[in-house]
Amino acid sequence: MPEDAKTDSKEDWGERHNDVGNSFFATIGIPMVAGRSFGPQDTAASPKVGIINQALARKRFPGVNPVGKRFNTATGLKTGQILIVGVCADTHYQDLRETPPPQFFVPYVQQKSEYGMTYVIRSRVKPQALAPSLRRAVQQVDPELAIAELRTQQEQIADTMRMEFHRCGIDGRLRCAGVGAGVCGHLRDHGVFGGESTQ
Question: Is residue 42 a contact partner of residue 131, using CB atoms and an 8 Å limit?
């Protein structure tokens, strides 16, 4: 919650969040609309920073520029724990029909622990040709580190669209198909490739 917000036990201050790397926004293609992205200056030892999306800015900081403001990740934590250094554009996640949810991002290197990570790679190389090299690179770092799944962003969107089709009627199905084609076409141009690893 914002550092100057009045605590109300009846209000839910919880928000979605994502622990990410410095190049996350550039790799995925999420534009910054204010402030800056994460960079090499944001380390485990540096002051904690965060980036919020436009939806969270409207919800928690209405009518003001949130860059330079501070917020806490839970009630009772030290005031002004995280400094907002940027605002990113809103994006859809699990549901293409939902309004983009309020969300904040923090550097994963500033977190105490990570139980699993999803690596996202942007490349012009075909995914089928890139996958073996990725597996070898991971094995060189840690032979016991398992890669749970490798798939392109297009495949991930396709899985989401299949679930959407089950929820749509005939007319709605055509509308969903049109949206899906546009999203997949946009991502195909970017060549985004993701892999998930667990420890």
Answer: no
List the 146-152 sheet strands across, edge first.
116-122, 192-198, 146-152
The two three-digit tokens of residue 145, written as one number: 């580190």
User: d(Cα 98, Cα 183) in Å, to the nearest integer?
Assistant: 15
Burial of 105 (0-12, 13-18, 19+ CB in 10 A): buried
Q: Do 13 and 75 contact (CB within 8 A), yes or no?
A: yes
CA distance 81 to 65: 18
Alpha-carbon distance 135 to 137, whole Å?
5
Summarised one tens digit per residue, pLDDT across range 130-186 is 888 888 888 898 888 877 778 887 787 777 777 666 666 544 544 444 444 443 333
Mean pLDDT of 6-28: 76
- Residues near 60 by beta carbon (within 8 Å), at least 6 away in sequence: 1, 2, 5, 15, 52, 66, 71, 102
Distances (CA, A) of 47 to 78, 84, 110: 13, 11, 9
Which residues, in sequence order, are CB contacts of 104 under 8 Å at separation 6+? 15, 16, 17, 18, 50, 51, 52, 53, 56, 71
The separation between the first and the last C-alpha atoms of the chain, rounded to the nearest angstrom, is 31
The residue among 198, 32, 40, 57 whose CA lies nearest residue 119 is 198
